[in-house]
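As a warm-up, study this chain.
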Amino acid sequence: MSKVTRRVSTGFNTQGQSSILADEQAEMFAPYPLYSCFQLQNLFYTEENPQSLKTRHNDQPYDIVLPKGAMRFLKCRMPTKREMIVDLQKAGQPIPEDWKKFNYHNTDSVDYGYVLSGKITCIIGDEELELQEGDFLAQIGPEHTWINDHDEPCYMLWVMVGIEPSGQRKKLSVE
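Now compare it with the structure written out below.
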């Protein structure tokens, strides 16, 4: 899977004509230095709500916490457990005994995920859900974590929409 994505935004220019507003490269990056194998690609972000014909991409650093109404569209490289172990060992961190509890968290957002390639297991409460290429997941605030016991990373597209904070948010251990 490509590490660079061409990000094109269209809309209306300052004269009100239909136009290509941006044509640029979106690079993969590691949002958490501890896990260089977990990578994201920020494709679109806006805090404008409601959105309109004037909505534009905002270059904001990645943050799993979104303001209410903000929308983030991104590609995510979900690493294998083997890759995570290597990163943890490099950082001198303990290897989890129970991967179902590792980075168990929830977000104040409604998240829509689509599996582009690979397979991954989502742990939601006491339930396990195996997702594979072509599967779609609508995630509305549950506590969850991810385990990739396969030989290849899983690539997913995500749309995250910030909602009113619940006061029940359980943070990632790397935040």
